[in-house]
């Protein structure tokens, strides 16, 4: 395969997550060998996968998980150590941010090490700017959600860029007024990037209750069009990404409207290659057969 590769995704952690999102798609895509314990990583294949991505002109490596990667902070450190020789200009990590905010399991030493090893961007998954709304989705079993503004400030203090990765859910951010407040929150907290995507409603599901929940809480296509129209009229398109996302400068705030779980159809670019701990490299989350080695 000689296509250019947009993102080198690294599946860290395990299936375990400390949040309880009703829309979590992780159980809906094939496990591909991931369990609930800290996995043993096939480091030989990891280096091959990183080389493959760099040979495909990939500039972004993204540490992600089928659960929550920061549950195993030493493993995140090891991934960053192993990535260092490949010189990816952009290294991102997707997280729910809870353990970073708490500062017990993920310590300041971890954060400093991750910064020193090249982590550029921490992408925090949220559904709202309001703590109670985020609590209902992420930690319904707890009394309080974290202080999101304080978490952003903490990450900035260490030198990271912050992306708020917003999942649009009916009953949460589902009006133009609320979207504008979300943008204002991002701007007030100097969040570098704000991405928004509708909650994923897959066609096929391995889990009926999640499929039902996402079907009931999916925002309409009309609403997505309204948000795009708002961003276009009040801002400027600054990039069109290969997988159908549009990036805007909206009154000085970077905002990206994106879709999820799409398989790239471009003849020249693969949206991503995905490294699994057992050593397999794939190019689609939802098809176990999409395997490179
Ligand atoms: S934070 Fe992410 S992995 Fe964890 S339950 Fe929510 S969607 Fe799933």
Overall description:
The protein has helices spanning 43-55, 73-83, 98-102, 108-116, 131-138, 148-158, 176-188, 208-216, 221-234, and strands spanning 4-12, 60-65, 90-95, 121-126, 161-168, 193-198, 235-240, 246-250, 253-257, 269-275, 281-282. The protein has one domain: Aldolase class I (TIM Barrel, Alpha-Beta Barrel), CATH 3.20.20.70. The protein is globular, with a radius of gyration of 18 Å. The relative contact order is 0.17. The protein is built from nine helices and eleven strands. The chain has an eleven-stranded mixed sheet with strand order 7-8-9-6-5-4-3-2-1-10-11. The structure holds iron/sulfur cluster. Iron/sulfur cluster binds next to loops.
Question: What is the topological layout?
Answer:
Blueprint: E1 4-12, H1 43-55, E2 60-65, H2 73-83, E3 90-95, H3 98-102, H4 108-116, E4 121-126, H5 131-138, H6 148-158, E5 161-168, H7 176-188, E6 193-198, H8 208-216, H9 221-234, E7 235-240, E8 246-250, E9 253-257, E10 269-275, E11 281-282
Parallel strand pairs: 1-2, 1-10, 2-3, 3-4, 4-5, 5-6, 6-9
Antiparallel strand pairs: 7-8, 8-9, 10-11
Residues 17, 19-21, 24, 26, 67-68, 96, 125 line the site of iron/sulfur cluster (SF4).
């Amino acid at each position: 395969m000689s296509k250019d590769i947009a993102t080198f995704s690294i599946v860290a952690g395990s299936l375990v997550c400390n949040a309880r999102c009703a829309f979590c798609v992780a159980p809906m895509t094939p496990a591909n060998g991931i369990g609930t314990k800290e996995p043993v990583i096939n480091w030989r294949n990891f280096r091959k996968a990183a080389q493959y991505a760099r040979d495909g002109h990939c500039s972004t490596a993204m540490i992600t998980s089928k659960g929550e990667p920061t549950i195993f902070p030493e493993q995140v450190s090891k991934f960053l150590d192993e990535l260092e020789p490949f010189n990816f200009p952009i290294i991102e990590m997707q997280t729910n941010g809870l353990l970073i905010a708490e500062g017990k399991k993920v310590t300041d030493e971890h954060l400093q090490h991750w910064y020193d090893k090249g982590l550029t961007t921490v992408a925090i998954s949220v559904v709202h700017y309001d703590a109670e709304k985020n609590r209902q989705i992420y930690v319904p079993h707890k009394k309080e959600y974290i202080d999101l503004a304080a978490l952003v400030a903490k990450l900035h203090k260490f030198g990271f860029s912050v992306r708020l990765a917003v999942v649009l859910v009916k009953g949460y951010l589902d009006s133009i007024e609320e979207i504008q407040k979300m943008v204002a929150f991002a701007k007030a907290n100097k969040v570098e990037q704000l991405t928004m995507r509708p909650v994923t409603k897959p066609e096929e599901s391995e889990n009926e209750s999640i499929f039902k929940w996402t079907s009931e809480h999916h925002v309409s296509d009309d609403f997505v069009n309204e948000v795009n129209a708002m961003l276009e009229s009040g801002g400027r398109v600054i990039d069109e990404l290969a997988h159908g996302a549009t990036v805007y400068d909206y009154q000085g705030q970077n905002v990206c409207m994106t879709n999820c779980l799409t398989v790239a159809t471009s003849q020249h670019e693969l949206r991503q290659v995905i490294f699994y701990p057992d050593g397999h490299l794939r190019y689609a989350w939802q098809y176990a057969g999409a395997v490179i080695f």
